[in-house]
Amino acid sequence: MDQRVAGLYAITPDSADTTGLLARVEAALAGGARLLQYRNKEASPALRLVQGRALLALCWEYQVPLIINDHLDLALALDAHGLHIGGEDGFPAEARKRLGPEKILGVSCYGRIENALPAADAGATYVAFGGFFPSSVKPGPARTPIGLLGEAKRTLKVPVVAIGGITLENAPQLIKAGADSVAVISGLFAASDVKLAAQRFSGLFPRRQRKAAAGKR
Fold first, then answer.
1. What's the confidence (pLDDT) of residue 91?
2. Domains, in order of start, for the chain
3. How wide is the angle at C-alpha 91 spanned by C-alphas 88 and 94, nearest 5°?
4. Contact 159/67 with Cβ under 8 angstroms?
5. Could you list the active site residues?
6. Which residues of the chain fall short of a pLDDT of 70?
7. By C-alpha distance, which of 26, 27, 66, 74 is closest to 47?
8. Which tens digits make up the pLDDT trace of 184-202?
9. DSSP character at residue 31
10. Strand ranges (DSSP E) for the chain?
């Protein structure tokens, strides 16, 4: 089990304000986020490069892995710590080959365990399931049963990440069900105090899991 994937997984909101984004991300890292995913669906390639470089510098400072969403070429150009791909963003085996063996590779499996098995076999470091709850980022009804997390933990040998409308109120259900990590956008970055929100999310995980994740920083 890859101990790098545990605890609070912060995912950036879409933002053209690089200064403001960096301030919020630093607050999340200071509050205990164990991974950061750079996700900006609205940015130009040039802006993604600028923001990615700045975020990578912050992540090195806090010893937290930076994962790039979707854009393999950007992950390679930055020498980021890893990549996260969805079902339509490429094949895990190809991504693993280009990233090399040590980088983190995450794969979205939505609400289907059958998507996770070949992803893990192809070299995924972790698999992500969701959405579990209604989300402002991806509107529409929640479609993934929480029980899927337990099935995934029994079936897979890689960390399991939960995503989709996660808040401080509903995250404990997911952690209890088996999530090694919860990936949060709005529930973290829309908070009035991002650092405090990160601390509270981090505090939801069992102490042994927090210590293991901290030991890998």
1. 87
2. 7-215 (3.20.20.70)
3. 145
4. no
5. 39, 108, 138
6. 1, 87-90, 137-142, 207-217
7. 74
8. 999 999 999 999 999 999 9
9. T
10. 7-11, 35-38, 66-69, 82-85, 104-110, 126-129, 160-163, 181-184
